[in-house]
Write a structure and sequence with these properties.
about 525 residues; Growth Hormone, Chain: A; Rossmann fold; eight-stranded mixed beta sheet; four-stranded antiparallel beta sheet; 16 helices
Length: about 525
Amino acid sequence: MTPFLWPIVFICGVASIAIEMCASRLIQPYFGDSLIIWACIIGFIIIYLSIGYYLGGRLGDRFPRPNFLYQLTGLAAFALGLIPVLSTPIFNVASEGFRTADGFLFFGSLLGIIVLFAIPVILLGCVSPFSVRLLVRNVRDAGRTAGKVSSLSTIGSIAGSFLPVLVFIPTFGTRTTLYIFSLTLLVFSTIGLFMTAKRRAPVFAALTVVIVLLAAFVTFGIKTATNGTLLAEKESAYNYIQVIKRDNGEIDLVLNEGHAVHSIYNPNQVLTGGPWDQYMITPFFNANVTEKDVKSMLMLGLGAGTVPKQLTKAYGDQVHIDGVEIDPEIIALGKQYFDMNEPNLNAIAEDGRYSLITSNKKYDIIGVDAYKQPYIPFHMTTKEFFQQVRDHLTPTGVAVINAGTPAVSNKIDYRLAETLAQTMKTVYPNVYMINLYKSSGYYNTIVVATNQPTSLDNFKKNITQVVTNPLIKQVGQKAIDSDSIEEWTGVSKSSQPPLVLTDDRAPIEQIIDQVIIDYVTAGGK
């Protein structure tokens, strides 16, 4: 029955890479999809496959029977089918460990994640060397046979790279995709056992039924909504998206791992007390600026439109706003749940930096809030990027970026904010930091760079004597009263001097990863 091995080899090749693609989608809502996350996924998959290759060769020599291989593939398929069920509680524990800064929970759940994917991938890795052992009839054909097996398995892996991403995940979702590959391999394994060892085939037929029942009746979202009611949940090509309605009527946009709110909408109030409010006050670092001088804004990282909504309320709909958001699903949800329907807002679905490159417009404010929590896309943090931003600013224009500044060991961690400020200082004459923890308790710093020489005195004078809009005056006065604004002079509050990020070298993910590790190991204190 060796001819039946060929489709098994192909399907296992598909499944081995499909697991990798699906693993990234399962992990993304909890840990993001940074370079280091991808490195861990790829690295562990390769480790598991290497173990499987070794074991497959040993097992093939010891049990050179097709029925034994079909049992291995059947067990791999069953383990694959359990991932959608087991992953949610494990990831929830990891998320809770991070939220509460419980190192034991956080790192313990990471071990669980490692084991979760290890079993099916190791068993799938056994298939190629085991198949070569079964298919080789004489030494003369050994090379040709091994080449055919490797080639077919690799073709399967190519299919496994594209099918989940282009077809299955967008159409059915991550968990259903895993069930599909699990059931496909289980069915073929069971058929193979009916052909070679009929007594054991019913066991795997029963396992197939178990996976079918799990797929049919065990239903849950990828993540449960916390502290509110889930209004919408969606997997897009870029994000796992939740829209949550809080008990106070506020509607929040939560992405991926869910440790940050990306957009807020409250029909009963404009200001949020958070980082979004600060964008409206940033033009007033310039001298002799009034509300009428602010006529345009570019928002890179539009989200569901919190900042454009506030800016429109503060300056009126004569201010033209281009909002760039890479994920079209977020734009659609913004219009549906966040009343993102301002007549002066032009929502554009594309990458922020690409949008700058292909545009010749100039703006009074260019805001950047393109977090894919907990990370910022590195190409939107570099000196070259901020040079492109400068080229699209009016003479009195300002560049504004939101940075996370968590508390670690009862001390605010400024490493990310200072790195951004230091990089922006190489491009702009003046850079300011608005530290929100002083005024609102948010662990964010808004970094503001001006296109011409400015001063903090300008800001104070404008807010107290020039500004008439009550929203702008309220936010600006609060920043002044809380002493939350400082000019960046290059003197770091942390032990590590900040880097200047460039397109060639921008270790932004390493900086954020170190902040996260310090936060968890310090117990969030």
